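User: Structure please.
Assistant: Input sequence and predicted structure:
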Amino acid sequence: KTFLNKRTTEKRDQQQENISSVLRLNDRGRGYFCGKTTTPMSMNNGMVPADAAGEGRISSPRFTLWLIFMVFSIVSMSSALETVERNHEDAKVMNNQKYAVASTITSLIIIAIVVLMHLSSATSLFIVSTKLEGLICIILVGLHSATVAVVSDPYNGLAVDETGAVMNGNLYYFSWAGFISSIIISVSFLRSVYHVDVAGEIRSRSARLTYWAGLLAASLVVMGAAANIYDADCNVEPMYQTQKFCNRTAFAIASGCLGTVSSLLVVGLKIATASAPFKLEAVLSVLIFIINAFAVAYTTSSYGPGAPLGNLYYFSWGSFVASFFLSSSCYEEYTGASRDEAEASRRKDELFNEEEEEETGDF
């Protein structure tokens, strides 16, 4: 009986050791066991090992993103080529239109080369999770940020008309989609190659930093778009628009300026010190929410400058939504702290009463 128990224990230990070995291989390997040495993804800069067919091609976790990015660039380029005017009276407008076309063509060529390099086993080694891919990401972010600025300017005659309304949906929306894609690919590259989790770092840095950063971006666009409209329609003699329209445009500029300065202050404090005074944050968030509530009502109404669908319309609502989430988050933190304080006070009273009862009983 003792011998059988010993054998059973040895078999159980051996099975446990086998299971542990398999788990260790699974954690370290993630490769293919076809006579090849497996390499952990963390040691391979985020690259997925070659497939079992023996092609030797390294697949990238961003290959699908690059394909989607290429589709956006194709649509943007074709729309820009169709929209641009060959002969324009204003030389500055003509140069901006030429830049938009050149930028979209350059972006498409770069993205197409990157996609083709992903498909070849000989060239994928030079592009997947390398410094070259990182440099290309930086170049594309710069190109698309400038393209979005030129395309969204109503006086370049590309995607937005003089009233700020979108007149070429493909060029407008796909230019923004390309810009967002370049940001997403850059963040994915930093996370997989340098193990920099940008979103995680922002969340862990301080509470509500994401909301403040979003409010900063939206307020900048609102301020710039409203300023362009005011310069073109109100800051001229005679004015092209009514006084009511110009007053609402000026109010949009003021609300965007306040949101930009306030969010820039809070973001700077959170980045520098990992925190910001809660009272300052709460007061600013409530103040910006109230101002944005009036701003979005006046700006996007039928007599406002943001009535047509365009940058001012979308980002006015974006600023309002961001300020709403900021205010609600501050309120939740305040009520949570009040509940915790009340619970701590109640617990303290209970402990004090228990100590008094024990002393009375001992007496």
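The chain has a mean pLDDT of 79.
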